[in-house]
Amino acid sequence: MTGEGLPIALIGILMALWLVGATVAIWVGLSLRRQSHRMLRQTSRLARLLETAPAFPVVVKGDGRIEAADRFSRLMGLSAPASTLSDLGGHDDGGLSSTDLAMLEEKVRETQRTGKDFVLPLPVSGSPRRLLVVGGIADTVIYPNGAALLWFFDSTDSLRELEARTEESEKAKSAFAALAGLIESAPLPMWHRSPDLSLNFVNMAYVEAVGASDGFQVVQDGIELLEPENGKTAAAFASEAMQKGQKIERIVSATLGAERRQLRVFDIPLGTDGSSGVAGLAIDIQDLTAARNEFRQLSDAQRHLLNMMSAGVVQFGSDYSLIFANLPFQRQFAFRDQWLTEKPEFARVLDRMRENGKLPEVRDFPAWRGERENWFRNPEPSEENWLLPDGTHLRVLAQPVPDGGLLLIFEDRTEQAQLASARDILLRVRTATFDNLFEAIAVFAADGRLSIWNRLFAETWGLPDEILIKHPRLDEILPLMSRHLKKQSQISIIGELVRMTTANREQRRSKAAFADERIFQIATIPLPDGNALFTMLDMSDSLKIEHALRDRNAALQEADGIKAKFLANMSYEFRTPLTSISGFADLLKAGVAGDLNDQAKEYVDAILTSAERLSEQINTVLDYSQSEAGVMPIAREKVDVHKLFVDVAAAKEGFAKERDVVLHLQIEEAKGTFSLDPKRIGQAVSQILDNAIRYHKAGGEVLLYARKSNDLLEIIVSDNGPGISEENQKIVQGDGKKALQLSDDPILQGLGLPLAKQLIETHHGTFRIESKPGEGSTIIMTIPSR
């Protein structure tokens, strides 16, 4: 190569190197430009992220100046951008308080000095905003002088949520502590099983029930409170509750302490599908069961008692349905037990009562029924009186019960109403009777107060009505009464009579002479109620009549004595010639005066018969007179009554043949002895037979029947003669003298039947006539042995 070509070559090389270098420079420049654009875009994005980030970066330099975005000032509520950390304080409507600012400055200085990070919550003055400041040392490359980088987070919502959660957490802790304390001190055994069904927790009641020392021992040893039931353990029941996801309730028997008790046990799964285990508790229902049994027994006894009451009782529940009705209620309202077992409602019961005619008649029954339904809502009991169509009076008491039901009591007051009506009538009758009595009557109470008086009492003593209606005391009216007495001092006797009767409960009598010459018989009688009855009877006319009667009685006694003497004299005077006539007739019949022809003999027999008849009549009159006077002697003795009646019939046999009357005897049942007077009873039967034969028609029949039964003798005499009229029967039964004097019946013309009646009654027997005219007569006599 030549010398000239070398420089050109070098220039060419240099130009090539320069071109290469220029190309490289251009390429590097372009690369740097692209990298610069990329960094600008990245810086722009980072700036945008910082602007929209929830945290605000603030750099605090060593000299106290700060670097922060404008929006940081807005965050702090400042009107102008802050250039130093001190600018954040001293504002009324924003920034930090002096205390918070001093705390922040202290934290920043400590970070700049030591590089220690810090977290500080700060409130913004005058704003509910809360900030969280996270501080640390800034990048030493960018800020070589020890600047601090502060991140301000707006944690207003977060802090509020945190405060709320903290408060809730404290409350939950407090509630859990209270619940744990409650469970621990609860008197009911309670426990918790972990998901593997092992005991995890028990309270003190559980510990005491199983007799352990503490809960840790129970959990550690797995001591079960409940015994296996039907081959299933307590854990098996808990497992069943966990599988079903619902609580299981059962009643078991267990030993608590040293006593056997009945428990109601609950197994309750916790969490979803029992993921939190199973809780359990046991309620001692032994006392409750005993109380229920006692209540059931008491209820049964009460219902039994209600069924025995006379009042009807029915009870309705809070749903207005019938719960109970006793038997008197069913009888009162004619309800069938089968219908009542359907538990009808109150309205249906009233409807059925109305159908049965057991409700008062009302014009608007639906409205009336609605008013009675208000009984369920009334707080106080209600009482009504029902008058039923059949005249029944019911007292109805409606008593609300605490459970919202109603108890009705129906008391039949019909008898009481009738008694009250009868009492009113009796009071009116008593008043009318008192006012129309011939006696003056008054009733004084135990305290001497006048309670009852009649019109005659007021008129007799001249007491005005205006005084009597005040019911004065006895000592108040005695001065008014004394002016009517002949001797006014005798009024004290009347007062003393009343006082002694009320105090000593003794009956007293006295007399009072009035100034008008009237004389009263006074009597005071104690009454059962403690009062005294005061009666006054005007004896003025009675005393006059008494004196007249005494005079007449003396005259009658004198006349009766004269009559007795007359009868005795007449008996002597009659019997003396009759004895002579009978004696001379017997002599004639015996032939003392010579033989008599047949006609003369008939005359003598007639004389003897008449004399005997007359003697018998005289004896009858004398005996009847003695019987009427009550002086006829009766001599009872043991007598063969069969022989007595045979002898009496034999004595009348001839007379019966003479009268062409057949005499029958039926005395077979009268055998044995009987205590009576044979003379008087024979006389009575003889008189009746004589009367039956004498006034009988020819061809008639007379029956004598006698029967002895224990202590009673029955005698019957019957005939088929003309009979005795009813009027004449009354005459014989009542007054024999009247029969003798007034009767026109030939059967009663004499004292045969009256004397027989007197003789039977003297033996304390009975005498009875049964007869109808034309159908004969039957005389029935009974005589007791004593």
Structure report:
It catalyses: ATP + protein L-histidine = ADP + protein N-phospho-L-histidine. It contains 24 helices and 27 strands. The protein is an alpha+beta fold and 786 residues long. The chain folds into 7 domains: 53-154, 2-Layer Sandwich (Beta-Lactamase); 159-185; 187-284, PAS domain (Beta-Lactamase, 2-Layer Sandwich); 305-418, Beta-Lactamase (2-Layer Sandwich), CATH 3.30.450; 437-538, PAS domain (Beta-Lactamase), CATH 3.30.450.20; 544-628; 633-784, Histidine kinase-like ATPase, C-terminal domain (Heat Shock Protein 90, 2-Layer Sandwich), CATH 3.30.565. Strands 2-1-5-4-3 form a 5-stranded antiparallel sheet, with helices on both faces. Strands 7-6-10-9-8 form a 5-stranded antiparallel sheet. The longest helix is centred in the last third of the chain and has 51 residues, at 540-590. The N and C termini lie far apart (210 Å). The model is unreliable at 736-750 (pLDDT under 50).
Give me the secondary-structure category: alpha+beta
End-to-end C-alpha gap: 210 Å
How many DSSP H or I helices?
24
Shape estimate:
elongated
CATH class of the largest domain: Alpha Beta
CATH topology of the largest domain: Heat Shock Protein 90
Number of domains: 7
Catalytic activity: ATP + protein L-histidine = ADP + protein N-phospho-L-histidine
Domain Histidine kinase: 569-786
InterPro entries: HATPase_C_sf, HATPase_dom, His_kinase_dom, HisK_dim/P_dom, HisK_dim/P_sf, PAS-like_dom_sf, Sensor_HK_Regulatory, Sig_transdc_His_kin-like_C
Pfam families: HATPase_c, HisKA, PAS_7
